[in-house]
């Protein structure tokens, strides 16, 4: 289940209802899917063939279509990242910069872990959302954020798009952000 860390105070928020309420206040959608639906051999596999990616998408087809119908997503795919990903260091360097998009960024974690760093309201500042398998998050359009891997450096996620062009990253220079 997702956990929040507020960067200014180091305060942690856990428990599905608390996390959901905090994120709702920050206009971030949070839902949870049953990650155990995924066949066991895919729950810990981070280099995937096209067939395996399709298998993950069909496992969560109902959840994906429900989310897509409610929120207008038209296409979806699978992203898998780990130390086996070519150029992973360069990719992470690129990822780890605060940016915005013209559409929301939605990720459903199928396996592994990941973390979104999001700029909250002025009273909260930047906060981390640590995600694990089953967590679904949507960072609203124009909200500064970035995504990266956690210590395990392994993730498989479903990405959903309204228009794939909407995912272009616009750098957000912010003096108030410090790692
Ligand atoms: Fe992004």
TrEMBL record:
> Needs which cofactor?
Fe(2+); Ni(2+)
Q: How is the cofactor bound?
A: Binds 1 Fe(2+) cation per monomer. Binds 1 nickel ion per monomer.
Q: What class of enzyme is it?
A: oxidoreductase
Q: What does this protein do?
A: Catalyzes 2 different reactions between oxygene and the acireductone 1,2-dihydroxy-3-keto-5-methylthiopentene (DHK-MTPene) depending upon the metal bound in the active site. Fe-containing acireductone dioxygenase (Fe-ARD) produces formate and 2-keto-4-methylthiobutyrate (KMTB), the alpha-ketoacid precursor of methionine in the methionine recycle pathway. Ni-containing acireductone dioxygenase (Ni-ARD) produces methylthiopropionate, carbon monoxide and formate, and does not lie on the methionine recycle pathway.
Subunit and interaction comment: Monomer.
Q: Which family does it belong to?
A: Belongs to the acireductone dioxygenase (ARD) family.
Q: What is this protein called?
A: Acireductone dioxygenase
Q: Which organism is it from?
A: Paenibacillus contaminans
Query: Taxonomic lineage per UniProt?
Result: Bacteria, Bacillati, Bacillota, Bacilli, Bacillales
